[in-house]
Batch of 3 targets.
Target 1
Amino acid sequence: MDKEFSSAEITKCFLDRMAKYVHWNAFITVCEESALRSAQLSDQKIAAGTAGALEGVPIALKDLFLSKGIRTTAGSKMLHNFIPPYESTVSQKLLDAGAVVLGKTNMDEFAMGSANITSHYGPVVNPWSRDKKLVPGGSSGGSAAAVAGHLCAAATGSDTGGSVRQPAAFSGIVGLKPTYGRCSRYGMVAFASSLDQAGPLTKTVRDAAIFLKVISGHDEKDSTSAARTTPDFESFAGKSIRGMKIGVPGEYKIAGMSEEIIDYWRKGAEILKDAGAEIVEVSLPHSKYALPAYYIIAPAEASANLARYDGVRYGFRAEGKTLKEMYENTRAEGFGDEVKRRILIGAYVLSAGYYDAYYLRALKVRKLILQDFLSAFEKVDLLLTPSTPTSAFAFGEEPKDPVTMYLNDVCTVTANMAGLPGISVPIGLDKLNRPLGLQLMAPHFQEERLIQAGDVLEKGANFPALTEVA
Amino acid sequence: MDYVETSGGKWELVIGLEIHAQIISNSKLFSSAPTRFGAAPNENVSFVDAALPGVLPVINSFCVDQAIKTGLGLNGCINLVSSFDRKNYFYPDLPQGYQISQYKHPLVSGGYVEIEKADGSRRKINLERIHMEQDAGKSIHDQSATKSFIDLNRAGVGLMEIVTKPDMRSAEETSVFLRKLRSILRYLGACDGNMEEGSMRADLNISLRRPGGELGIRAEIKNVNSIKFLAAAVAFETARQIEILESGGKVDQETRLFDSATGETRPMRSKEDAQDYRYFPEPDLPPLVLDPARVEAIRRTIPELPDAKAERLRRDYDLSHYDAAVIASEKEIADYYEESLKHANADDKDMAKTLSNWLLGDLFALLNKHGKSIVDSHISPKNLAELISLIKTDVISGKMAKDVLEIMWENRRRPADVVEEKGWRQITSSDEIEAVLRKVLEEHMDKVAEYRGGKEKLFGFFIGQAMQKTQGKANPATLNEILRKLLNE
């Protein structure tokens, strides 16, 4: 540790920038006092030689990780007044490692969205915006903007269908979704339980590795967390990829994908090839069914997960003359349109007479997608795809119908459906100076490979740092 | 076969039961909150039970063991892979907005309970399945005119839902079945079977058909919270359905509520407003996969169950069919009896039978009189055994023992102490008894003459006189024997 500056200094610097760029709306809640206090404590620990892995590092938490005593909203009016009595496992691990929490970042309501425009607390502006205001992607849009705009060193996100990787790609930073089960979901406001996974948004692949190590591990409070030891991910940054086989699945060349993105995809493959990897064409034939199946499974689980927001015990309540009226008023006023849409879809696909045609079929598709990946990984070590079919779009230019909006997740949902780890690494800027990212996907619990190849990709891409911001 | 006969002909009752049995465990099915009954409202509530955002269920492995034990005790097949589903509905005492249950893949398939009816005939009542699920909390509507209150103490407590096949044909079979099931669950220590406190609840499915005909449309009856009410509910529902059917109508497939105050059932919700529960696999819990060794280990802990115990009591102690069945019918009675036997000479079949007679006769009468159950008996198994020993060794007579028993109940003393204190030790010395008898005969020479003249009924009179002189302490057998000898002199 060089000790060129103290944690208190860097924390103060980030807090000043957060105030300066408050118009990006990246944070829902700022924890200025507690951040400064814990930064001072961290400085004492560093001086005493008892520093943790992230001692004194100022970070931000997506506002769906429950923070004991700090309002946690999940971007919803429903939880506008909810102060959790307990800490999420992931944020506890970060605190235990010495991280300084600057605040809670803005997000799409209940993590449902791809542009951070469904938040009850208003949209987030992408720090890469120039003439037009761009969306940062979503649902972890606040975290992505905060990292990209240098408002924090790193941030947590959650990824159900691409909510870490897609905003990372839109914002020119690194976003990693771990294997399902790598990190505990305890204390994360649930969207779709079989798909949700916490993950880091960071400036570099190496940072993602360090961050991931801290938040990984089995948690007895989460029965779906895996009993696995956590590798030293950071040690894989800088390791040679010579001899690695990297698959390029043709199915990810989505209709209407810009030539620029395809060129960058080719460029990424070249970088890896130059570093000694072998590029192999592979096929994932069921990929095209992933998105529709995802938009059945995720809403189905969400419709049940969000049933607890009924105005009875905590959160928002709108009174009514009868119990039923209170429920209806609370949920009509407390949830935004996108959340209501997904609850309705979810309730519909699970209802009697439709279950087999929709939900059951989607589960079968999910199995086929997993099977595709398992077959592909018999031949290759990693897969390389674009992270998104487009670059960030401007406010007002976003797709107006939900289905086109859902296409933002088309490259990322497959990993969630199969439970695989994936990383988005910035690869370059398009003609409009908007960032683009490439995605690497690995077999279950092989995040090391993402770090190893992601680091190579990052160095080869030589992505420009964001220096001037509006 | 049991048929219901009316002017309209014969009807066959078809009854199935769904029993919700609370699992005995220290903590809830998916949280570490305690399950203790009688806590202050909302005292036993964890973040999981209150369904805060971000909480996750973690299966209580002891509850699983209890359910496995129950499945084995009820002769079911333990499925080594079972899984949980979410049953979705809104109600304030269901914080999650869904109940975690086992819908598609239950822990136990099949099984049966053998019942014995009053006429001695036996039948097997088959089980469909047993699965685990969460209990809901309680809504309290009677404390305020405008508000309802919620107590989540019960929310998340582990339940076993035991579903029978539609195998019962009468109210008697149904209540005998429920009693037997309750007894087995208590033997297993899996559920306390307390219907009044709601730790065991039964829903009835009742339909009628012509003997041997197609199954009729059933009504589901909820809120039958004691075995006593079961017969009333069945009787009311039978009459109601017969009236509909015989007037050419159709029974509605509906859920009805039993009202214990009136003994009637009334509609709760019809099939049309039956809820769509939108079951789907619980994504927060992986499938429950059991190691066969675990099931085998639990099988070895299954205690002797009522039928086997009754059989053994008959075989080993020559107890009557009925007595053995009554003793074995409740674990606490059987425990009392066997504990008592330990303190007596159990090799003596006569001793065992006498003990059973005293338990089922005099002690049961005392328990009834004082409104106590066997576990609250003022007379310990050991003291009862000692009392029987005093009879068997001629220290006191059987008649006096009844008085001793009363005193033992009052002051919880040992029978020997009671006998000593009261000076009730029996006179067994032949010389002493002969002296008393000679005195009686001397005082009643006239009656002696009458006796010898053929009025043999006077034998009892002399015995009475002698008992009076000894304050009832003379050994009756010796007294009889010596009196006969003296009168025949």
Target 2
Amino acid sequence: MEYSRILSTVVTRNVQAQPGESKTTSKLSQISKGILGRVLSDPHCAGAVISGPVGSGRRAQLETDLGQMAEPPQLIRLNGSNFGTKVPLGVLSFLLAQVDAVETWSRHELIHHLGRVLCIDRRPSMVMLGRPELIDEESSSLLAQLATIGKIKLFAICEHVQELPSDLFALYRSGRLEHQRVKRMGSMETHAFVQQELDGRVSAYASGALCYLAGGNRALLLKLIHSWREDGQLLQHNGTWVLRLNALDSGPAVRSLHTSLTHGLDERERELLAALALGGPVDLNRLRRSRLTCELDGLLNRGQVKYLPGAAYKVGISNPLLSLLVRLDYGNQAQPYGVKLLAKLHADPGAAQILAQLKSLNDLGDYQSQVQVAEEFQQQGYLAERWLIDPRTRVSILEMHVRALAMLGQLSLGLKVIDAARTGLVQAIRESNPRESLDIAFQELEMLTSFATLFGTEIKQETGVAGSVEAIVSPSDWMSESLHLRSLSLQAVRWAAQSRQADAIKLVRYVDEELRNISFSSPMISKFNSEDQADIEFQLLQAELASGDWKAASSRSQRLAEGQYINPLLISYGDIMRGILLGLSNDYDAALRLLEPNLHQMQVAGDPGAGALIGAVIAYALACTGRRAEAAALACPEYGTPGAMQVPLSFYSWAAEVFSCLVLAELGSSQEALLRLSAFAQRARDGQRALLEALTLGFIARLGDRQVLAQLHSAASRCQGPVGQNLQALADAAVAKDSQRLAVALESLVSSGHVLMAASPNNEFVAAMEAKDQRKLSRAINGLKRASSPALRLHDELHIDSIEQQPSWIRELTKREAQIAKMAITGKTNLEIAKFSGVSIRTVEGHLYQVYSKLQVRNRQELTALDRTSRRTAGLR
Amino acid sequence: MKQHQLITKTRPTEYNQLLQILQRPGPAGVVVLGEFGMGKTSLVEAVLAAPGTDEPIMTLYCTPTLSTIAHGALSPYLGALENIDEPVSVLRELNRSLLSSRGQAETHIVVVEDAQFLDPQSCFILSLLVENADVKVLALASGPLEADSPLGSLAELGAFTTVSLQPLDRNGVRSVAEGVMGRKLADGTVALIDMVTGGNPSFVEAYAASCLEQGTLFRDDRLSQGHGLHEPVWVVARALPEIDAPMMTLGREITSRLPLQQQQTLLLLALAGPQPANVLEQCGLPYQALMKTGELTWHGSTVDLKSKMMQRIMRALATEQDIAQLHELWSSVVDSQGKEPNAREVLWSLEIGKQVPTELVLELAERAGREQNFGLALRLCRLGKLARHHEQGALLEAQMLLSMGRHHAARALLLRLIDQLTDLTLLGQAYAYLLEVTCNIGADGAEVKRILDDWKQRAQGHPDAEKVASFLALHSAGATVIDFWTRVNTAHGPLPRVVELQEFLQDKQLPAQARFFGMIMLSDLHTSAGQCQQALDLMESALQDLNEYPAQRSMYEVRVFFRIGWNLLFLGQYERAAAFIDSYRHARLRSIQYYQGAISLLDGVSHLLQGRVQLAMAKMAEAVTELQIADITQLLALANKLYRLLLARLGFPVPESLVIGPGSSSSSGTISLNGQLGEESSKQRILARAFAAGLGYPYPGESLECFPLVEREFVFSMTRQLGDQELADSQLGERLRALAAGQQGSRAAFLARLMDLRGSELGEPLEQLAQDALAKKEYLVVIEAWARAAERYAQSGDQRRCGALLRRAAQLIDQQGIDPGKYIARVLAMTELTARETEIVSLARQGLNNAQIARTLTVSQRTVEGHLYRVFSKLGITERAELDHAGLEAGTTGR
């Protein structure tokens, strides 16, 4: 029983966790539709247990399936309750009322009579049992017995199987109850679910935010969707549901949500929950020391709080929405509670409260208020004596502040904020004894500085990142692995921008491996949290984009889009990047599908920079599919000329410009496109971004301007790494008009994800090539497309693993030679071989001569001996 | 069906026993006993699924509640009865509903699950049925059989047999785990799973499933697996997966059967580690019954949980409140007894937020570290916040990190420490560790120099002259060691002479750390020069010494272990080597991951030296994979090189090494990214360099000649591809003889002798050499000698003797899976029969005489005789009767 059970659950889970499934296939049918039918039709099966966290849709699917049945069985819904446990057979009262039970009945008689009521015409009723952990032993024993006799089909719905009362558990153990484990929805599933619920396309940001806030809890998700649709935060824009999140309103819907989530908590538990919501996560140690274990157990049991992963042993509220609701409720209370606890739980309750407030504002996407709150804190918060208390929280606040500024596009202000904080911290360090936490805080500050400089200003050759070049370069002094890796990933971004692409790519790979190693080491040892990891992956993606390693970038962005980290911003960023990279690999249908919802989201959220980029890619995709009018309508802004939109020189502005110009070219104004591209190339040269310059020039040449080839060569030679080399080779080949070399160069570009450069329409490179080479190139492009499709990749891997083993000598021969050699070994004469293969005996002799000389054998016997020994060694027969 | 196969694989004896009982006529019953999760049900299901067995007519499930109800177990089959008066009505009902309707079936099988809860009435009915109605009862029960229980009385019946299931052996564990994962696992991983789970199949499954789910399985994608080379090897990167929902369910399945008190016992043991019996007794927690059912074992004089996994699961199941209450109970008992707390107990106290004196935490953490329980020690350091409060504690934490191979973390900690430490002794120690870390993550001359300078300066202005003196002594020892180290283990600077190191080691005042470092380097020098015996002696004495220095032992034992194994192998003492390696193989749960890479590597080397290339390949792949995970001995580069060597041997393209981290191309801001991955940092170790030279890309200023031991092996493998004349024409034979003559060990001696004899015309001495080498298991030499001798016999016209020798060679090749090389393969062709000869042999085997064969083939009898004569001499046989065996080995019937 044990074997089969565990095996079967593993199988279902693995099917669910199939990587890279596209968004279009709904993964909603978590509970396989068959379970109801299976249980009802199998006479040996007593029922099923469906386990999973609250709100994962355990009951919903069952009810739906039942509704679809032609002749549903009699259904009885029973629920365990606190009250029910105190009354013997309490949960069964409804059933007992239907038989005229007599006190003197023996148990067998009771069962017998109940069975008659429940099983009419040999059709067992269906009993759906909720909260089985709250029913008394007697009832559970009776239900179990009824189920074994086959009078009822029992469907128990619980959080963990182990919570079943002992008799039901025994029944489960005996293997007569099927088991289905339901998981919380991941971000992909949420996306599909929300789309189904809203009956329309939903932007990745909207579903990501919903998933994040509700923590995958289906019931919550539903309530949120409805309440937000009511008050217009979820709105339909051009056919896409987008989210304009700013505040949680305090209407009755939300209030009832709060009540349902905190239902049944006692006073002290409520207090702890409030404290956690107001002050953020708390060290487990402090909770234990404050003798709050009992309350903690209560909250843990109900799933309102959870242990946070990682080495820090912290406890926090399990989903952000609950935290928001509790805060909201707190604001409405006349008699605030929980504040007293804060002082016990935090070294600096004030700072902790600010941090928690910032986080909840961040969850709601309200960056403006975040900045306000943080600025208020800034007045006093970063004085030297304050730094001595709880520096970690302070750094976190600062980080939130800077990030909020970044979201508002005011990163340059961030540097001032950091500087102010640094003054206090430096003073604190000077005045106090050396303390690790202060040092770490200082390094975090440094990291923040380099982040702000890196993304807030233009990166130029040799202009270092202010104040912290040395710190990044020497890896020795970082206080933790997290800092070390974050610094390396920032370094990778910088290198990628500074034409040290090869170094950047190597660094990215290194950090990737380190991340993998960390995931392998025990979480108790490594101090690493998933936020830092998400941060690192974001930087790595930046580095890959800027260094032209678009193939790697594409798979990373896909992983992010699929919700590797449940962070709405990162999910939508990954989604957008994936779309743009698809555009760059000339897969415009897919790009269109991914990007349109994002465009609508951006239009509503009002992010002109990103909106313009997405718009450009979409316009190109539209133009390519012949929807020229629509393409033209998505007007393309200009980045190239000075005085136009002030967007820093980056991969993004490059992509926006190139796509805009490609659209222009498609629509017939090639001249304007060329002008704009040259202007951009000039700008890139001034900014010393050699790769961007070279790529821009490459596109100019692609559009037919052969004059830039020399420039392209020189720009490409200033880049390091494969993309630069390939562009250089491309320029050379184009100058020489060598079709074959062109094909080779384009093919290598394709293999690193630069498909657009080689894609055929309007492409002078391709036009200059011979038909044969063109075919070869398009084969390569198709090959890449196939390879990136996950289903095929999986298949390939399996295939490789199962290749039949062959003796080693065969590898030295051609296919034909090997075939003939094999026949010779089996004792066939040359004549027989000749007849069999339909060639002349001379040909066979010739082949065999080749075989002998390649394998250094003199005759058939030696060949046979060689074959035999190599088979022996390889363990083949 | 798959499951059926699994059971016949993991539990063949029990399976057959049950099958026999079921198929035997006459009354019979079996009680299958086994603790929870032993696979009782799977076994029974497999037996029932076997061909020739019928479906059971009844399956009874017993529970504690039902055991108090009359006929509880049988009640599902009595639903039609209005009420139950006596056995007669029950029997009548059963007879009516079940037995008669299936009259045709051969045997009536009744399965009883959880039979320890069988109620007396049902039991009585069953006993009647077994004895009189040709019903076979299969009762599955856990726990000990108690004589006065219903089941006990049933088992007493003459017809009953008791089968009790024991934990799986390692092969069983492998089958189950690989079955769940669908992948081939490395040996070390299987051992790990075995130890963690205690061989309980359910645990094994849950473990495997969780590893799969949590993605802690690792394989090295860079190894070109799958192309007929070796199967891909997977290792578990983390000894214990996180406890997830299925495991919790498993835990509950176990504990739900137990009374509350016993659950508490399990929890206490999970939290506080092994406890003396009297503590448990005073806490009022029972343990005897658990001992009987096999959940607990005696661990010396203390009681402990059997499997590590159970410990984790119990903790995960417990609520905070339970833990707090249990701690109160336990600590009051322990206080009253005045027992010294152990590391686990202190960790527990720290975990629940109790204050523990820092000194005590430190002492216990140190002890745990000495017992190589680095994880526990590290957690004590972290939870006790030693690094913050205690200088020595901080140093200990660094040492633990170093021992676990987490060099970067250790380095960061040490760099921080040296700014803070005031005590000179500790400071010296910190600098010493820092140097070691720097070596391990790839020494950069400038940085080493900076550390050494800093180190020296810190002594200035310190009042205590005595302390300063010892501080400076440590510094100078460190400086010397690092100088030697750089010369031995990087491509810079000339190799130190042996005398230099010997002189250095003479110093009686030398700190232990420096001494071990020095000994290891000296042994490497010896090894590289082929003086393996000296290297071995040195390392064996180091192993002895390590016993006296527990602190150093945790750090250096693996290295010493590897060197002893390596030298034994290269000396040609294969049996001793195997015994020595086995004594470390899967020795302890905590050290498996640290040793496994070195062990696999040594296994691979042993296969390689004895010519079993295919096996060596698989082992080496395993070693590389294991070392990717944990490479505290800095062997990854060596393993990688050996893997490449084998690829080349088997004629596969050798992949370029993937260099990670910016190379010399970066002009400024080069950062050294040499991580725990090891490939980068350990690539310049002396042996790795030697193999690099052999593979054709030596470091500048070096060549294969600088590494005599490795050169010997490379030259030997080259000579194997040459005929005697070619050998005489080349310098190789001479070179090998010179090399081998100057080196120690039987392998070297054999090689020298082989080269000598290959120069002479005589066959007999070669045969003698083969005989001697065979006794020493020097298989490659044996094959060489036999083949060369056979060639000589063939030349002198003694075909038969040649055939006989070659046949033996082929036999040995077959039996050991040796790769004889192309040359020998061609020599073996002398025994290969032509198509015509094969035909004649097969006819002769069918018992035809020469005349009959001649008629069948329509040739003359003389022709047949001629053919057979050649066959006889090729195979080296004299009588027709031998054809039957001889032909088989020469492989003529293989097709």
Target 3
Amino acid sequence: MATEHIVKSFDQELDLLKRTIAQMGGLAERQLESAIHSVMRRDSGLASRVVQADSQLDEYENEIDNDAIRMLALRQPLAQDLREIVSALKIASDLERIGDYAANVAKRAIALAQVPVVRPVHTIPRMGRLVQEIIKEVLDAYADRDLDRALAAWSQDEEVDDLYTSLFRETLTYMMEDPRNITPCTHLLFIAKNIERMGDHATNVAETIHFLIEGKPLIEPRPKGDSSSFAVVTPDTVDDQED
Amino acid sequence: MSMTSEIASEPSVSPPPQAESEARAKMTSRGVEVHYGAKRALHGIDVDILQHEVLALIGPSGCGKSTFLRCLNRMNDTIEGCKVTGEMTLDGGNIYDKALDVVQLRARVGMVFQKPNPFPKSIYDNIAYGPRIHGLAGGKEELDGIVQSSLERAGLWEEVKDRLSEPGTGLSGGQQQRLCIARAVAVSPEVILMDEPCSALDPIATAHIEELIDELRVNYTIVIVTHNMQQAARVSQKTAFFHLGDLVEHKETQEIFTNPQDERTQGYITGRYG
């Protein structure tokens, strides 16, 4: 089938939409990377730059929203074109949320830099790398229209959830051991939660790609590894772990 | 009239056991082919038209959608050299049966055309004409009632009730089209065929007609040919896409417009080179 529209400017607009998503995604990925660095290197300067750069992601989202709404109004798209534009709106919104979480991680990095290091911090770069990988994979899958790749990334998120659950238990243990750990551990916990949420938004993008390509929603339930909502750590279990 | 119907009017045997979905089929088409002289315009069309549903026929010019529409009330009979084969039924009865009264068929299967074509008569007589010739009204009072209720169903009554004796041709385009719909409704049809009913109307008049189609669906079965994709998406429950005389895809309207399966459908509705 011919893939070009009779109206050429429509193709140009769709191309621009795809390119803007790619640029926005690249920025969101870099924001996450820098935010993690700022935590690990206790670099408040870098953290501040991440916080400031978040407005760029908001601008990208506005740009995509405006373009998409204009195309919906002027082109009255159907079928693949309609899915293309609706997907762009949804993905832009997910990327914007990922950016917000990156900025929040960076803010906490500033706070964390002012208190002593706690050990569970070492799980953070692992979680960060994993989520960054998932984001990169879904963005590539979006650019290449590669459903298999999107689904592979989608199922990887379970690992992020597992890491989060174990970090949750670990930080609780540290807090119980020494109340002075509570401040850094709480920040750490929120940082980990933010990263875990970024992973969730990345899986949303993968689900949107499924809709974009297949024309129907992904109905299979995503494997969920985050059981921290049910996790209980008591002083007894702390003792057990130390034995 | 040189039209020859090759559909044999076989003695009716007991109807074949019908599936659940077929139970509601108001009209059916099986292997319907149409030739204009040597040219084959339709290649074996199989469609069920369900009761109280709007079926939209879409496709590029010359794809056969209007030809198919005109088969449904034997309007093609009037075209020289046109030959219809296959089986087409209304409520299970063969509409190409030689014993069938075509005038009666067209009262049951009414039609509204692209260009509003009111008779050069008063608004009242435009509506009263059909019921008069079909002997549907017992007297003046009953006829008045039919005229009023038909105009009401077409959403035109309030606008014309004080000038029923004025010529129908003096109305605006949108009003004329609603007058034609009222005229079709006046003979109590079961199916209404519409061939691009809004293509000559402005957006407001179009919205009136679309609203009307939705209301009429409660009592009638409607088949509409339209070039306006958004209109097909708005007014119909099922959509059939025709291409070069073939019925390419026929399913739920929402499916056709969000996730068409055939590349030709996709290419047509998204405006790509096919």
